[in-house]
Specification:
alpha/beta; 6 strands; six-stranded parallel β-sheet; 281 residues
Length: 281
């Protein structure tokens, strides 16, 4: 094994949702995936704040990775957490070859949503999911992985994870905690920002938020995964394989420049572009 990828989950998601990514990694690349405290079968932690996340990531590196080169990759809130660790934790960058933020949370926008309709809807949704999990109803109508696009055993494990009430209690605690996290302003290592083309809300706003994340490093790239959404980036095999190529590929070595545009592996015709623009109106 020549290198390792450390994979950090999004809000309310289990380590299993990296399954397609892990299966697509090259033979010389290992991986560490995990549930944060309070999720799944992990031991709960009553502490709050970024420092506990940093300590956990450092412990995982010390225990399972050692001196091997490591790529830090995270989806959604996990994307922010790995970048914050690399940016703010002392000596965290030793041995880190790149950071990959996959449709990552941008905490300033999250704070601005406080007490808005979006915030109230998020709170109510997580509360209702906790009730559904406690009554057993979530087994019949899972909130995530609705299309069951993983392997059967992963789908079953994912459903069981969502049916645990403390999954949703932990999610809400992390959601509120994230509103207190500092904005990321600088990252002294190669950075790849991967963005879903389609978003549940305002696509243009989402793309702009993701673009702001891409400029915190002077060695970065910004890549759109065509026809993907926030969940399908990892849940759909072909999207996850595209994400994996970016994780293990040669890291960016240059500044994006003032006139940069996000990259994509899709073949975009004029008709496709017109259809997408019409769909966004």
């Amino acid at each position: 094994m020549q290198r390792v990828v450390l994979l950090n989950n999004g809000l309310g998601a289990p380590h299993e949702y990296w399954d397609w990514v892990c299966g697509a990694l090259p033979a010389d690349t290992g991986y560490v995936r995990f549930n944060r405290p309070g999720y799944g079968l992990s031991t709960p932690d009553n502490r709050y704040g970024l420092e506990r996340h940093f300590e956990l990531l450092q412990e995982l590196r010390d225990t399972y990775i050692g001196d091997l080169p490591v790529v830090l990759a995270g989806h959604s809130l996990g994307g922010y957490l790995v970048a914050a660790y690399a940016s703010l934790h002392p000596d965290a960058l030793n041995g880190v070859t790149a950071v990959v933020m996959i449709d990552a949370t941008e905490v300033v926008s999250l704070r601005h949503a406080r007490r808005t309709d979006v915030d109230r809807w998020s709170h109510q949704s997580m509360l209702m999911e906790q009730i559904f999990a406690g009554t057993g109803l979530s087994v019949f109508r899972p909130a995530m992985n609705v299309h069951q696009q993983y392997r059967p055993e992963i789908n079953r494990s994912y459903t069981a994870f969502l049916a645990t009430p403390r999954t949703w209690a932990t999610s809400y605690r992390e959601y509120r905690d994230a509103m207190t996290y500092p904005e990321l302003s600088g990252l002294d290592c190669p950075l790849t920002v991967i963005t879903a083309e389609n978003n549940a809300g305002d696509n243009a706003r989402h793309h702009g938020i993701q673009a702001r994340l891409a400029v915190i490093s002077d060695r970065s790239r910004h890549h759109f995964v065509d026809r993907s959404d926030h969940e399908s980036l990892l849940a759909v095999q072909k999207h996850a394989e595209e994400v994996t190529e970016l994780i293990v590929g040669e890291p960016p070595s240059e500044w994006l420049g003032e006139s940069w545009q996000p990259t994509t592996t899709a073949s975009r015709t004029a008709g496709d572009a017109a259809e997408r623009e019409e769909a966004r109106r």
